[in-house]
Amino acid sequence: MKVEERTLPKTLSLIVDNVSVTLGIIAGLAMLVVAISTAYEAIARRIFNRATTWIFSVSLFVMVWFPLLAAPLVTKEGRQIKVDFLFSRLSERVQARLNIINYFFSFVFIITLGYFGLEKCIEAHTCDITSTGLLLYPQWLLDLVFPVTTVWLCLQIAKLIYTEIAHLRKNKLAAKVGWEENSTLVLSLFICLIALGVFLIFVKPVAGIIFLALCLMIGGLPVTFALGCSGIAGLFIVYGGFINLSMIPVIVEKTLHNFVLLAIPMFIMGGVILDKIGVGRRIFDFASIWLNVLPGGLAVATVIACALFSAMIGVSTAVAAAIGLIAIPSLLSRGYTKEIAYGSVAGGALGILIPPSAGLIVYGFLTNSSVGALFAAAFLPALIIILMFSCYVVVRCLLDGRYEKRSFTWKDRIISLKTSCLGLSVPILILGGIYSGFFTPTEAAGVLVVYSVVIGLIYKKINLKQLLLMLKESALFGSAVLMIMVGAMVVAHLVVRLQVATGLTEYIATAGIPNWLALGIIMILYLILGMFLDGMSITVLTVPVLFPLMPALGVDVIVFGVFLMIFIETSLLTPPVGVNLFMVQAITGDKLWPILKGNAPFAVMLFLGAILLLMFPEMALWLPKILGL
Question: Would you state the pLDDT for residue 509?
């Protein structure tokens, strides 16, 4: 009996983990099918003029299921997006105790979503409600996602709580000296701040919701659940009890049932496949051979390789990881300074700015702007920033004189072009298809996935096992990003009901604040937020409030989107949250100071790029005008 009692928790734990992994792979497979179908739809409609009637509806059905189905896997792997600049400083024992508290906060959002989602599912079944669109199906099949996925997500979190308690009981967690080890102090302060946030919601709802969300995030709660819990607290307190919480699954379904956001998981999937099959290595080798004629050519090649790979992946940290693993050892071995090596990788990774950017897709969704126009608008500002980076690298290398000069023959260049041409053709195919109007951004994402698989087969880098691992990785990244949107739109719903943007616009208009001063305040706000929050959190928290102000301030909404992405890129290079800095640190194992020192000039150039964009907005607007977007 004792043996059974000891082994039962381990057996249950293994079952929960295995099912979470299986659900994640199923989510990835479903999204792969959607990508293939979407690419087929684009080709069938444009070339053969034979549009389908089912692909659009099926794709959106999968889109609603995808992030929630993969959420248990994201939780199991600890891949939720967090703001952990303070949390990571705590001792492991304090982190474990704080994690347990955070897991219970997570339950608040998950159980609310699951309970009212179940009610919605039962109502749809009882009333025989069908979907809208060309393909009709029972609505309860879509709503079933809420009870099914939240139950397993709760089981996965319960397993993690059990694990944390077991670690604490065994007393094998590392300790520290000082306040980082003081559980009573840290936990009491965290709970008091949460209580203060709840109190503020009664007094000043908007300030209270923002304060509560920030406290939860800084305390280590994943951004998704921090935003979701804050929205639930606001709906419950401001609008009177449980009745308004029935809106939670409605908001989530409306958020995910969106053709624009469908591009995000597919672009991520295409980027993951390209990374795993070694396209980053080929791109870096191509750039280093062709640009070696310049002083510091290898560092310039690193910047260009990052830019080219950004045009395939659309996620800055993934670009920094893929190119950094290849470029940093090469740069250091050829005599380049650490500052140049680190800066050209972390600074050059412009995946948030260079199309196809996940950030621009989210911004387009939040503002109901054309994603194609945003992609086109970001093209010239991104090019100017890349040129600034390259010029700085050349001048810095000339001044330092610390780099190895190597010569390559034209035969070497032709061979590098031949080996990398399939990878180099990706931005031309995808962005060319979008700008020409042949693909929508979402269709282009599907084409990217299919083309990436084809390249992998040509390179003989894909078999069934490797493909499943790629799909699992894609599900992790895609679900983590989309789940932030789920939490954010709960808060955004509350912000709209409270008429925050309208009130702020009226205040600025009646207070007589000069436009330049208002823009300066917004820039300072983003600089401060960028020091503490990740880019996606900044976008979903601020855009619903600030973008309605832009016409009153004389700023085009498209220009503001590009401006915001530049600032988010800057935030990736500024401590304490600068994710690209920590990616380089993880690759090199070096101290943070030389990494920060090397990236400071790149952060300054990004800031100057944002100023130039506000001064000369035509930088962003001329290409969309030419393309008629």
Answer: 66
